[in-house]
Amino acid sequence: MIGTQAAFARSRWFAFFLESGHAVAQTQAGEFELTGPALQWGPLDEDTRLRIDAGSAGHYLFLSDRMLDDAIGVVAEAADLRQFARRHMVVTLGRSDPRTTDLETLFERIEAEAARAAFGTEISVSAYIRLLLVALWRGREREGAGARTTVGQGRREINRFRNLVEAHFRARWKARQYAAALGMSYDRLHDLCVRSVGKPPAQLIRERCFHEAEILLRRTTLSAERISAMLGFSSASQFNHFFKAIAQETPGAFRSRIASSQEAPATQAARFSDWP
């Protein structure tokens, strides 16, 4: 049995690829029986357990939030991919399914890179995890294509808005610019966001920018001036005011607190996971 409370206590996500044999995966979402080849992906919680029969073969992968964020990246499709990656998924594969070979190759390369621990290892592993997520995403889209009902106009529009935010939030676009790019009035965009997410578009845009600022402050040594320029602010003081209004502390204070403590930041209210 593989649990989560020892070496993997700081991980938040897992992938288990069973090449052959039998296993039972227990999570908060329920208990899943797997017969290889099969794959399970999902959030890693205190209830997660894997019971793997003797003689079975496969790979398991544990990820932190940071690794998942790096794998998803900042491409236009990142909002959709982030939403997809937060699900529990169980994929049953046939030995002749081309995805089986693809997944075997991806996990082998991830394992090889992790064992190498050389310069660029983390970048390479992130790239392979992104390929893994895209493979799962494409497979889920194919499986649901026949039975999926037509997506409502509102859902299509909010997805277009999310993707535009991913592409342009660093340019500091205003909500009205997004509305114009979507070919709708500001009132229509405002109503769409409030009905779908419970928040106006301007707040969603701010939260996305704050999320990026938080990542850069936590994971890099870039100065506040450099980060403010990367995020499209006219000055470091404008960035400081923006960050403090949400986090209730300056970027410098936030970075000092994170550097002196292993605890997660307290500013959890404004997370981009509020997207539907």
TrEMBL record:
Top-level lineage group: Bacteria
Entry protein name: AraC family transcriptional regulator
Alphabetized SMART domains for the sequence: HTH_ARAC
Organism per entry: Sinisalibacter aestuarii
Domain HTH araC/xylS-type: 159-257
Alphabetical UniProt keywords: DNA-binding, Transcription, Transcription regulation
Entries under InterPro entries matching the protein: Homeodomain-like_sf, HTH_AraC
Record's keyword annotation contains Ion transport: no
PROSITE patterns listed in its UniProt record: HTH_ARAC_FAMILY_2
